Amino acid sequence: MLYKRTGIPEVDEIVLCKVTTIFPNSVFVEMLEYHRQGMVHISEIAPGRIRNLRDYVSEGREIICKVLRIDKEKGHIDLSLRRVNSHQRQEKLDEIKQELKSESLVKNLAKKLNKPYEELYNEITTKTFSEYSHLYLLFQDIISESVKLDKLGFDQNLIQELTTAVIDKFKPPKIFLYGDIKLETYHSDGLEKIKNTLIKIEAVSPTIRLTYLGGGRYKITIEDLDYKLAEKTFSKVEEIITAFIDKSSTASLIREKQD
User: Fold this and answer.
1) What is the 3-state secondary structure (H, E, C) of 57-93?
2) Which band of pLDDT confidence, cut at 50, 70 and 90, is reported for residue 1?
3) What is the rounded CA–CA span in Å between residue 118 and residue 44?
4) What pLDDT is recorded for position 5?
5) In terms of DSSP H, where are the helices of the chain?
6) Separation of alpha carbons 169 and 20, rounded Å
7) Quick one: which of 195, 203, 193, 194 has its CA closest to 236?
8) Contacts of 89 (CB under 8 A, 6+ apart)
9) pLDDT tens, residue by residue, 215-232
10) For the segment 33-55, what is each residue's pLDDT rounded down to a tens digit?
């Protein structure tokens, strides 16, 4: 991984480490993002009594640690392995995974542009790491179109190539939910009631598309990039369909099964 951070970590920061040396009562590690050494005391490896540190760690193994104390004068950084909970560990692993994926993208783009990988990586990060802590955060903003690469100093050719590569690799696949709506009413103003209900449904989200099938039936398609958001939209439509029902009106929303 090329990613490196300058300076020193902050207390309570979660960091990626590689075990370098194991002593009877402590473990020395390299904090891979900072190129600095840290120490994990035996009491911070795991809860309870530890007879052999090698039952928990081994040289060369990568571990996720929490920064406990920093002595800037002596250059000592104390870390903890046991104080990292499962959520923090997974969050850090996901961050690393996304950053490695970003670096892979830059590596492939360097081949396409016939440039040395590290040269292109440095060109991109030099322009962006004053605004972003990680490459993948920049790429997320490229996907959401919330960053202007020209304002960060990128030339037009690199903007086009990088944007195309990021969209191709990072843009999540679209989620589709389908359903069959049926509305029937004997109200004197039944047509208006149906019309208003359809307007309410379409107003829930721009991700909704309605298609008239005939006989009071409509096909609903929800197209989104986030499955949870799509489900939330579907639930809101169900509420509108339920509200349509009264003594003179019936309605149903049958969700189409998907493989």
Assistant:
1) CCCCCEEEEEEEEEECCCCEEEEECCCCCHHHHHHHH
2) confident
3) 37
4) 87
5) 86-113, 117-128, 135-143, 156-170, 190-204, 227-244
6) 34
7) 203
8) 14, 64
9) 999 999 999 988 899 999
10) 999 999 999 999 999 999 999 99
Q: Could you give the CA distance from residue 5 to residue 3 in angstroms, rounded to a whole number? A: 7
**Which pLDDT tens digit goes with each residue over 97-145?**
999 999 999 999 999 999 999 999 999 999 999 899 999 999 999 988 8
Take residue 180 and report the two structure tokens written for it: 């069959």
- Domains, the chain, with CATH or none: 14-84 (2.40.50.140), 87-170 (1.10.150.190), 175-255 (3.30.70.1130)
Q: How far apart are CA 136 and CA 129, in angstroms?
A: 11
Least confident of 97-101, 203-207, 255-259: 255-259
| Contacts for 117 with CB less than 8 Å, ≥ 6 apart | 106, 107, 110, 111
Residue 259 confidence (pLDDT) above 80? no
Phi, psi of 25 (to 5 degrees): -120, 10
* Contact call for residues 177 and 222 (beta carbons, < 8 A): yes
Q: Residue 8 burial by CB count (10 A; 0-12/13-18/19+): exposed, middle or buried?
A: middle
- Tokens 């902050």 sit at which residue? 10
